[in-house]
Design a protein that fits this description.
Spore Coat Polysaccharide Biosynthesis Protein SpsA, Chain A, eight-stranded mixed beta sheet, 12 helices, 10 strands, 40% helix
């Protein structure tokens, strides 16, 4: 390549085996030996000292990159470790490739990300580049290597300093936002029905999710994320070990073997068929809605332990029919 490669940032905490798998996969990337790697290690919470120590011991053995820089935090702060790492690299280099310790990458991941960062560097309608693609049945007649969604994804992403901004939303702003049905429709139709529920949690302080804030920012600024038609990353954190991840294989996908000659689209325009597929993937089922409702009113735990009542309730709402 005739230009400098973007720095790679990885945030890690207390999962040494996940980290090892992520780094070993990254080392198999075509551009690994030409890339600078920065690893941000969060400090331990009480009880996690030995696991963090194991992570940091492993960090000192990493090779296979142009350079390896380790940042060991003194204070535990998940958000400051990850978001701070992104901002540090953006401030210094103007662009970044970033992911967490539970993301494994395909050999062509770095090539795709660097080429996309270069191709779209002057296109302000692009907010970020995703290395991950959800399990969507892309139409057989779709002839491009990429598509666009108004949904940010952190499982291996790239972005630029001049547009990576995070908009915070207050409860008052959220109430104002949801009072406008047109805007709500645009928001969820463009990125997924689940986005509104997550945005509410973020607004009321139940979560502090950078990806949700990024989704909201994209909507406000009419910006998009570009995705490869097949995934170049895989999240291995849905084993119950992640901060916000339970045990789930809904988002599992095969990894693309392509390593070169990625074809990008100049004009940022979403394919409505793919937008609809993404919406359906993230759609909340009736069963999930009833479960959330019973949790909100404090009835879920009673139902869970009272089989007869649960059967009657779910029968009443005709769940599964």
């Amino acid at each position: 390549m005739s230009y400098n490669l973007a720095p790679i940032g990885v945030s890690t905490y207390a999962r040494p085996e996940h980290l090892r798998r992520a780094i070993e996969a990254l080392k198999n990337n075509v551009l690994a030996t030409e890339s600078d790697l920065y690893i941000f290690s969060d400090a331990p919470r009480s009880g996690d000292e030995l696991r963090v120590e194991a992570v940091r011991k492993y960090l000192r053995t990493i090779d296979g990159f142009k350079s390896v820089t380790i940042v060991e935090r003194k204070i535990n702060d998940r958000v400051a470790n990850s978001r701070g790492g992104v901002n540090q690299l953006l401030d210094e280099f103007g662009r970044v490739i970033f992911f967490a310790e539970d993301v494994v990458t395909a050999p062509g991941f770095l090539t795709f990300m660097n080429e996309a960062l270069k191709f779209y560097e002057n296109n302000q309608r692009l907010y970020s580049i995703s290395g991950y693609t959800p399990p969507l049945n892309i139409p057989a007649d779709y002839q491009h290597d990429v598509f666009f969604l108004r949904r940010f994804n952190p499982w291996g992403f790239g972005t630029w300093k001049d547009r990576f901004k995070i908009e915070y939303i207050s409860p008052a702003e959220f109430k104002k936002f949801i009072s406008d049905r047109r805007r709500v429709r645009e928001f969820i139709n463009g990125g997924g029905e689940d986005m509104l529920r997550m945005l509410k949690k973020d607004a009321y302080g139940e979560i502090d999710a950078g990806d949700v804030k990024a989704m909201y920012t994209q909507y406000l600024n009419d910006q998009y994320t570009v995705y490869p038609v097949k995934s170049l990353t895989k999240n291995i954190g849905f084993d119950g070990s992640g901060e916000h991840c339970g045990i789930n294989d809904k988002y599992n996908t095969d990894i693309w073997s392509k390593v070169s000659d990625f074809k990008f689209i100049d004009h940022v325009k979403p394919d409505e068929r793919i937008v609809k597929l993404n919406y359906e993937l993230h759609r909340t089922t009736l069963r999930q809605r009833i479960t959330r409702f019973t949790k909100d009113i404090g009835l879920f735990s009673y139902i869970k332990h009272t089989k007869d009542v649960a059967i009657r309730l779910f029968s009443l709402f005709k769940i599964g029919r």
